[in-house]
C-alpha cells in the first residue's frame, strides 16, 4: 500500500539534518599525514623561533661598535657555514665569514652582505658601504615560547604543516574524518567492466558518490552494489550503521515495488524527512538509526548529485567543525528558462563572475536521470516553485560548488 509522504522545503530539510547532534571524535596523527585535516586542539610553540640568531644573508658578521666609518678594513677570523656555530669572541675590527641561515655569534651586531665587501690579501676584507639593516633574525622574532602557532578548528595546509615542523611539532590532534559507507541498490546495475546487457545500466553513482564524499572530507569505508532484495539491504544497512558515522544509500527510495528504503526509514529510530519540495531529488530521505545518520539519495544520477551538495556536503564538513564549502550567492539568470514547477527546481548550471556580480546559465538537461552535464556543472541555481515561468535576468539563489 502506498504510504503518503509529507514534503518539506529545502531549508527545512537542511535544518533537520543540521539539528542532528554529531559526536566530536578526535585522533592524534603525525604532522606528515595531516594535510587538510582540522585541528581539534590549538597548537602552541614549544620553543622560541628562531631559537638562535640567524643570518639572513651571505657575508661577514661584525660587532655593532665597529659598524661605522666606511670604507673600513677588517680581519677575517673564522667561517660559519649554515648548521655550524662560532663561539670565539670577536675583537675590534674582526669579521667572521658567515652563510645565510647560519648562527650569528652572540657579540656580532650586523651581517654585511658579501656584495658590499672587497677581498684583500692576508685574510683581510674591506667593507665598502654600510648596511641599512642588521640582516639578523633575532631569537623569538616569529614566535615566543607558548605563542599560538595554529588555532583549533583550522584546516591544515602545506604551509601550516611547514610551520609546525619548523617548531618541532611532530603530531597533532585532529577531528576524525567521518567514516562513510555507500550502498547502491538496483537489480539493473552492472559493475563497471561487465559486458553491457539489455535493460541494465552501469553503476555510475557507485563511482560518483564515493568521490564526492572523499573530496568533501569523508573517508569511504565500503562501497556495495546490491540487487533489489530487502533481506540483503537490511543486512548491509545494519552492518554499515554499526561501523560508520554516515551511511549513504542510493536508489530504491521512491515508491516502486522494490524501493525498500522508504519503509526502512519509516521504521527507523528517527525519520527526519522522506520527501522534499524540490526537483530533482524530491525523494531524498534522511533518518537516524542507532545514532548513525542514513542519507538515502535518489538513484537518478542528476538527483543524486544535487542532493549530495544540498544535504551531504554540509554534513561532512560539520563533522570536522567546518562550515560548508558551498558558497551561497545571488545570481542573475542569464539564459531563458521556461518550465514552471510545483516544487522548487534546482538546475545544474555554470556561472561567470564580474566584480562580485554573478551570472548563471542553465547547463543542459535538468532531468533527474540526465548525467551529461555533471562534469561541467559548477553551480546549482534555484528556480522557485511557481505557475508562471521565471523571467530572464531574475535574481536566483545560487550555490557555487566546491572543487568545480
Ligand atoms: N510512482 C512514482 N514513481 C516515481 C516517483 C514518484 O514520486 N512516484 N518519483 C520519481 C523520482 S522524482 C525519482 S528521483 C525516482 C527515484 O527513484 P529511486 O531513488 O527510488 O531510485 P531507483 O528507482 O532505484 O532508480 C531511479 C533511476 O536511477 C537509476 N539508478 C539507480 N541506481 C543507480 C546507480 N547506482 N547508478 C546510476 N543510475 C542508477 C535507475 O536505473 C533508475 O533509472 O523515482 C521516480 N519514480
Ligand atoms: O526526486 Mo526526483 O529526483 O525529483 O526527480
From TrEMBL:
Gene3D superfamilies: MoaB/Mog-like domain (3.40.980.10), MoeA, C-terminal, domain IV (2.40.340.10), Molybdopterin biosynthesis moea protein, domain 2 (3.90.105.10), Molybdopterin biosynthesis moea protein, domain 3 (2.170.190.11). Keywords: Magnesium, Metal-binding, Molybdenum, Molybdenum cofactor biosynthesis, Transferase. Its cofactor is Mg(2+). It comes from the Bacteria. One of its GO terms (cellular component) is cytosol. One of its GO terms (molecular function) is molybdopterin molybdotransferase activity. It catalyses: adenylyl-molybdopterin + molybdate = Mo-molybdopterin + AMP + H(+). GO terms for biological process: Mo-molybdopterin cofactor biosynthetic process. Pathway: Cofactor biosynthesis; molybdopterin biosynthesis. Residues 181-318 form the MoaB/Mog domain. Its EC number is 2.10.1.1. Catalyzes the insertion of molybdate into adenylated molybdopterin with the concomitant release of AMP. Belongs to the MoeA family. NCBIfam families: molyb_syn (TIGR00177). This is Molybdopterin molybdenumtransferase.
Amino acid at each position: 500500500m502506498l504510504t503518503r509522504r509529507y514534503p518539506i522545503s529545502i531549508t527545512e530539510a537542511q535544518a533537520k539534518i543540521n539539528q542532528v547532534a554529531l559526536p566530536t571524535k578526535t585522533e592524534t596523527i603525525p604532522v606528515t599525514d595531516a594535510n587538510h585535516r582540522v585541528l581539534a586542539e590549538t597548537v602552541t610553540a614549544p620553543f622560541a623561533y628562531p631559537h638562535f640568531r640567524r643570518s639572513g644573508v651571505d657575508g661577514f658578521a661584525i660587532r655593532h661598535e665597529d659598524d661605522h666609518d666606511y670604507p673600513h678594513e677588517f680581519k677575517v677570523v673564522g667561517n660559519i657555514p649554515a648548521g655550524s656555530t662560532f663561539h670565539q669572541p670577536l675583537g675590534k675590527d674582526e669579521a667572521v665569514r658567515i652563510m645565510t641561515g647560519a648562527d650569528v655569534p652572540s657579540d656580532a651586531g650586523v651581517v654585511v652582505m658579501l656584495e658590499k665587501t672587497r677581498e684583500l690579501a692576508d685574510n683581510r676584507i674591506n667593507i665598502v658601504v654600510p648596511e641599512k639593516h642588521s640582516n639578523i633574525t633575532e631569537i623569538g622574532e616569529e614566535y615566543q615560547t607558548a605563542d599560538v602557532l595554529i588555532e583549533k578548528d583550522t584546516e591544515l595546509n602545506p604551509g601550516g604543516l611547514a610551520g609546525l615542523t619548523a617548531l618541532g611539532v611532530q603530531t597533532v590532534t585532529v577531528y576524525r574524518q567521518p567514516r562513510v559507507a555507500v550502498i547502491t541498490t538496483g537489480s539493473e546495475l552492472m559493475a563497471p567492466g561487465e559486458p553491457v546487457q539489455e535493460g541494465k545500466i552501469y553503476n555510475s553513482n557507485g563511482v560518483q558518490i564515493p568521490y564526492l564524499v572523499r573530496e568533501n572530507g569523508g573517508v569511504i569505508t565500503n562501497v556495495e552494489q546490491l540487487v533489489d532484495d530487502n533481506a540483503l539491504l537490511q543486512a548491509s544497512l545494519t552492518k554499515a550503521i554499526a561501523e560508520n558515522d554516515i551511511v549513504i544509500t542510493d536508489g530504491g527510495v521512491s515508491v516502486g515495488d522494490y524501493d525498500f528504503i522508504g519503509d526502512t526509514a519509516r521504521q527507523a529510530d528517527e525519520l527526519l524527512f522522506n520527501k522534499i519540495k524540490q526537483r530533482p531529488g524530491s525523494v531524498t530521505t534522511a533518518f537516524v538509526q542507532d545514532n548513525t545518520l542514513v542519507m538515502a539519495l535518489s538513484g537518478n544520477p542528476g538527483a543524486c548529485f544535487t542532493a549530495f551538495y544540498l544535504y551531504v556536503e554540509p554534513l561532512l564538513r560539520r563533522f570536522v567543525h567546518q562550515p560548508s564549502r558551498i558558497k551561497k550567492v545571488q545570481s542573475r539568470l542569464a539564459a531563458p528558462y521556461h518550465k514552471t514547477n510545483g516544487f522548487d527546481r534546482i538546475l545544474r548550471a555554470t556561472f561567470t563572475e564580474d566584480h562580485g556580480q554573478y551570472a548563471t546559465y542553465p547547463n543542459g538537461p535538468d532531468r533527474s536521470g540526465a548525467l551529461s552535464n555533471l562534469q561541467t556543472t559548477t553551480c546549482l541555481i534555484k528556480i522557485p516553485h511557481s505557475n508562471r515561468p521565471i523571467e530572464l535576468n531574475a535574481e536566483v539563489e545560487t550555490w557555487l560548488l566546491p572543487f568545480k
